[in-house]
Amino acid sequence: MTASSKVPKAFCEEEPITVARDSEVARIEALNRLRHRVGGDKLSSPIEIIQSAIDYIRFLQEQLETGVGN
């Protein structure tokens, strides 16, 4: 008998399917929050959403560097 077989199932790692599902749900929620902040419709791909976020961050950096709005 191994040490891990003595541990109750409740204390063992979650089932891989559950972990994968939870990760997928978290990824989708994060993309939806990002889509809401940078714009984009429901048909935008994750790559398009992330590229929009990168472009917006670069725009904000330029604004800070040039002092626009001060």
Considering the chains and any ligands shown, give keywords for the structure:
70 residues, 69% helix, mainly alpha, BHLH domain-containing protein, HLH_DNA-bd_sf, 3 helices
Concise synopsis of the structure shown:
The chain has 70 residues and is mainly α. The chain has helices spanning 3-6, 16-38, 46-66. The chain has one domain (17-68).
How would you characterize this protein structure?
The chain has 70 residues and is an all-alpha fold. The chain has helices at 3-6, 16-38, 46-66. The protein has one domain (17-68). The mean pLDDT is 84. It contains 3 helices and no strands. The protein starts with a helix and ends with a helix. InterPro entries: HLH_DNA-bd_sf. This is BHLH domain-containing protein. One of its GO terms (molecular function) is protein dimerization activity.
User: Count of helical segments?
Assistant: 3
Bin the helical content: 55-70%
Overall pLDDT: 84
Which residue ranges are poorly predicted, with pLDDT under 50 across at least 5 consecutive positions?
none
**Helix and strand succession?**
HHH
Largest sheet: none
Structural class: mainly alpha
Summarize the SSE layout with pairings.
Blueprint: H1 3-6, H2 16-38, H3 46-66
Helix pairs in contact: 2-3
